[in-house]
Prior knowledge:
By secondary structure, chain A is mostly beta strands. Chain A has strands at residues 4-5, 10-14, 19-25, 30-38, 45-51, 56-59, 62-67, 72-77, 86-94, 103-105, 109-114. Helix content of chain B is 0%, strand content 49%.
Amino acid sequence: DQQVKQNSPSLSVQEGRISILNCDYTNSMFDYFLWYKKYPAEGPTFLISISSIKDKNEDGRFTVFLNKSAKHLSLHIVPSQPGDSAVYFCAASEVSKAAGNKLTFGGGTRVLVKP
Amino acid sequence: DGGITQSPKYLFRKEGQNVTLSCEQNLNHDAMYWYRQDPGQGLRLIYYSQIVNDFQKGDIAEGYSVSREKKESFPLTVTSAQKNPTAFYLCASSKTGQGSYEQYFGPGTRLTVT
């Protein structure tokens, strides 16, 4: 049972335009969400996160939106740059003693930014 | 320069052999994790440890073993019982406690078993 889903395996966008990546989750106990960026043959690097008490968090070109009622979050990258071409993973965490700091990852979305 | 190191970058083994992947961190993090990534898929949790001398199974622990004798080190052994060991293995670490959800990842080890 996939608790975190990224339904779009790939996304192609023109340089300078907005990239919108989507993520859906099913576990209502998740209360913290993160986005990671990954280049081939490298480890993921943290991009941005959001707590369930917020509906938006912004950091430079990256903005994450959370819709708790829909169990949906999205990452907006604007403007998109060629260096943004990578795989983006959505991850979720449940705050409980039993869960610890475990993250559950989505399957990833490959973004290609065309010059 | 703090971070997580994984060695080697590429590892080749024959079927039936056990192999141990190294993971070291100098971030003073209490928690460490092992993930596996297969082509076109997300990261799946193999094992994690929140404190020295303690670890828990993740979602796909069968065929793997770990130890956590030191805070800095969390080696993963891929045993011959793991049916599909060829994959990209990622180690991560994080702080523990409230508000410590961000995990920092190493560069990964690509294991190929033939």
